[in-house]
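Interim report, section 4.2 (structural modelling).
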Amino acid sequence: MKNEFKVIADLIEKDKKVLDVGCADGTLMKFLKEHKNIKIRGLEISKNKVQECISKGLTVIEGNAEKDLKQFPDKSFDYVVLSQTLQAFLNPELVLNELLRVGKKAIVTIPNFGYWKVRFHLLFRGTMPITKTLPDEWYNTPNLHMCTIKDFVTFVKSRDIKIFKSLALNNLNTSSINENNLIFKNLFADLGIFLIEK
Amino acid sequence: MNIETNIKTLIVKKPLKLDCGKTIKDFPIAYETYGSLNSKKDNAILVFHALTGDQFVTGLNPMTKKDGWWSYAVGPDKAIDTNKYFVICSNVIGGCMGSYGPSHINPDTKNIFGTNFPVITINDIVNAQYSLLDHFGIDKLFSITGGSMGGMQVLQFISNFPDKSKTVVPIATTSSHSAQNIAFNELGRQAITADSNWNDGNYSSKNINPGKGLAVARMAAHITYLSKKGLQEKFGRKLQEREDLKFGFDADFQIESYLRYQGSVFVDRFDANSYLYITRAMDYFDLAKQFNGNLSNAFKNTKAKFFIISFTSDWLYPTQENKDIVIALNSIGADVGFVEIESDKGHDSFLLDVPDFLSALKNFLDKSYIEN
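Predicted structure of the assembly:
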């Protein structure tokens, strides 16, 4: 299991109720169910991935986060997880609001467009950056609204969203982000993980 | 038909008050079982059939000499694995495969019921079937499942008996019969009652049969079970055993011949009055209405695990109507999974060899059974 999921799992206490939005093949769901006794649900848009989840015995609803989160009542989950998908929505703000409505807390991870390799790629090659967390070409990327860690922090603050924890990931290293090191982390982390609440 | 030798029957002694106000008692429920009930009696799956189905789910149907209606899904090592599970299915009341219906004798008049049989509902149908649990000594089913009208019975059953099944799998169904579906059913009923042989429902005593009307009803309904794309690919404008158009009203096109065939074989195995009664039961089905318009309340007392399946090309019970059930369940925090299966076989997809559907059904059941 990738490091990002280990970090997410560490943020969630045992026996909680969790919704994994864009749960893909259910790797994180399965881990949370088996190791933390989490009552876990998934929402996934891809039919093939929904089938994979079913074959793992996971409860998944085929659906689109932009339309289908509204069926869940307010604060019906302890945590709602959104891993590296916020930038792919037509309206990320709407989805973020829905995550925070449905979940008591939300865990959102974003691929950091401020990562030095991304900046270098654009600066020196003059082409759209391709990295481990951003593997697609400009013409086939699902990402519509890329942002940096700094952008995200600025955005949530402007919307009065509380940040409980911000973590920077660079390969296997995890570190905390604070106001003093934000500029530094924005350069050296390829992934940001945020525990937020509204 | 040698009904006595091929049909297992349970006589329900306990009076059953029907939604129409009448009470029936000492009535037969015809059923069939597959696989065997384990010693803990926790491996039973109650399967509900659709409008024209019967209790002969799989294997050779002894009455029609054809494969059972869900042979693709039910059997040894299949999606509903009879090596593992004990499958029970019964003919709905109002039906014509042995359960109490309009072709039975009215005990009060000693004549065939015909249209004097009470109008039944999906609620009455599942209440009657509940007797099977007592009969087999099953306290809790492992699962209940069915497609189309079978799915309606699934929803009604878990609403009526919230702690009687661990898992619940409604397929290609609805919680409320739509205007379009009522319209198609009415078309079928009008075709039957317009046949002079229908004779206000008194045809068997006169040795006549409204076969033409029933065949037209079946033909119209059959079109609704398929998709436009499926029909086009299978038949297109292909001609039936002829080089050119004949400038007449014989079946020039293969699709015409196919529908005529479907109509004619249906008449041999189905009773016209049963068709009236069962379509009426479907039309009356509105689970939300039973709970003052709030579908969620139908499920608020159950802890069962739901898995809902729809098909992309099903325009009779479209994905949205299946999703409405998912939404109602999510709004009360129920354990519900949902998948829409890609298929161009229309509403009939659930009866056919659609591998993604069959594997999803199998995976859900088998994984849930392990957790059992």
